[in-house]
Amino acid sequence: MLSSLGAVPNRLAHETSPYLQQHAANPVDWYPWGPEALARARTEDKPILLSIGYSACHWCHVMAHESFEDPQVAEVMNRLFVNIKVDREERPDLDQIYQSAHQMLARRAGGWPLTMFLTPEGAPFFGGTYFPKAPRYGMPAFPELCERIAAIWREKRTEIAEQNQHVLAGFAATLPAGAAARDELSRQVIRAMLDNLRANFDAQLGGFGSAPKFPHPADLELCLREGERDVALVSLTRMCEGGIYDQLGGGFCRYSVDAHWTIPHFEKMLYDNGPLLGLLADAWQMSGEPVYARCAEDTAGWLMREMQSPEGGYYSSLDADSEHEEGKFYIWQRDEVQALLTPEEYAAFAPRYGLDRPPNFEGKHWHLRISAPLAPGAAALVESARRKLFAVREKRVRPGRDEKVLVSWNALAIRGMAHAGRVFGKPEWLASARRALELIRGRMWQDGRLLATYKDGRAHLNAYLDDYAFLIAALLEMLQAEFSTADLQFATELAEVLLTEFQDRQSGGFFFTGASHEKLFHRPKPGQDQATPAGNAAAAWALGRLAALTGDMRYTRAAEETVALFYPQMRDSPAAYATMSMALAEQLQPPALLVLRGQGDAPARWRGELCRHYLPAAIVLAVPDGVSGLPAPLDKPVRPGPVNGWLCRGVICREPISDLIQLQAALQETP
Length: 671
What we know:
Layout: H1 18-22, E1 30-32, H2 35-44, E2 48-53, H3 58-68, H4 71-80, E3 82-87, H5 92-106, E4 114-118, E5 124-128, H6 142-155, H7 157-174, H8 188-200, H9 217-225, H10 229-241, E6 255-256, E7 264-265, E8 268-269, H11 270-287, H12 290-306, E9 317-318, E10 321-322, E11 325-326, H13 334-340, H14 343-352, H15 379-393, E12 401-402, E13 405-406, H16 407-424, H17 427-444, E14 445-446, E15 449-455, E16 458-462, H18 465-481, H19 485-502, H20 535-550, H21 553-572, H22 578-588, E17 592-598, H23 602-610, E18 618-624, E19 643-649, E20 652-653, H24 660-669
Parallel strand pairs: 1-3, 2-3, 17-18
Antiparallel strand pairs: 2-4, 4-5, 6-7, 8-9, 9-12, 10-11, 13-15, 14-15, 15-16, 17-19, 19-20
Helix pairs in contact: 4-6, 9-10, 9-11, 9-22, 11-12, 11-16, 14-15, 16-17, 16-18, 18-19, 18-20, 20-21, 20-22, 21-22
């Protein structure tokens, strides 16, 4: 949607990104990132003003309203710079590079909107995040800043060139070097990672550190897998009780501004909710606590109801704002709630969700969170009240929704939905995951390559490391939920591109961009988790498991080389390597592979029984007799009996087991 009526659209009007389209009516002469903008900067010898953000970003909207919609500010920008607007979700390669550059230049963390000033060759020489139109918060006015930066460009070229060399050296230092030998790999590194998480764990309120608090699903998954059960379960429980979780509609917001998980930054991101859904299923398997089943049910419902497109793909995010106010869609007045409920419903609902306490949002509103145990006999009344409030909330002006489909984030959601669907026995969740997968396979897999983003019938942009690694991991989960030779074939096709396009054959590991991508100022090779798992870590984990299914030793070697490359960094700085730690654990002790072969749907029934147990170090596949074209590790001979379970680790397999109870016991014995 154009940001103001009657304005002449700029070049962004033809983009698929909703974020770029939000700026299509700005008086700023915006370009999308591409050869046209870069060529103009070189021809006119003008610096580039690069602005990176995303559609659900509150401060991006503020800067747009203050500066980019103002003709006088736009005149300054257009006169002095070639202006480029980037959606960080469509171009995570650019965002990674220039966020890192900002940190080097400004000596502090970046964020969004990211405002960077570049040479015509793309080298950064100054940057910041949000700048106000008029001076405040100790920051200069944006128009005056632009004039000062342009003067620096004119007068200090030599200094800029020298600084660029230092920045390039800084980027080079971020790349891992000197892989560990195989015999150096040790579980002590995983223990150090867990000790670091334990030291930062808030034992009372859950989560890590103080405010703001983020969900950190990869860290919690590592804790569950490695026996730090209370860290994961306390954190998940407190999040499910808090306001970071939408108590009426399901789904988790991006983070909590307070240590109690009460008031979130209200945007909802697909990349959080897919992993958290899978983690809730794991927590339920481990504990049997109904809170995890309830949150999983509501979160899956939200994903299908509000985030799945008619074509099948999952949308990217919901905005924090509605009617230009953050959180307005979600908050309540006490008398409003009281008027909507019967006296009995209100008496049960109010203490449960904190309406009997002082307002918790801006001193005058209530944001719902679980504040007291459910009173005896109150469950039906509270549920009736929730349904009524949800129905009324549905009539409010909704937050904006970013309706582009990203492969990487969809893969995280597919994996979470398929895993939870398998664990809870929900075929409709599996069908939802299947629809998203088929959109990617049908519209975003073209000529043997993935395209990263899709909207309005158009897929474009070469996909990145995360897209391939996350999608292989999602397919591995789909194979456990419902075996398909087509899914296994797709996973191997993706793995071939991963090795061909992204692998660093000299040093090991994978670059974030492929060989066919444009050459940028830097080519990252990320190993630490950020808001999403690190692409190298996800690739190492997924390739290791794919090797177990296919017997392809190339996948094994690539996984081993990746873990070995990052091992020294993990050892020296044991933080933010949760996903790589899980890959390391499976290098040291390969996962068990259980192949259930048998007649009709009997193998699937056995798989359903095994799903009741928490088995993170096992791959369980139900493959009916008669399926052809299987790789050697899965191609087990037909034997008498309804089901035979072939339990293997590496090249060592037990004798087939035809009794489900014995098979469960054997799986539990597997180290």
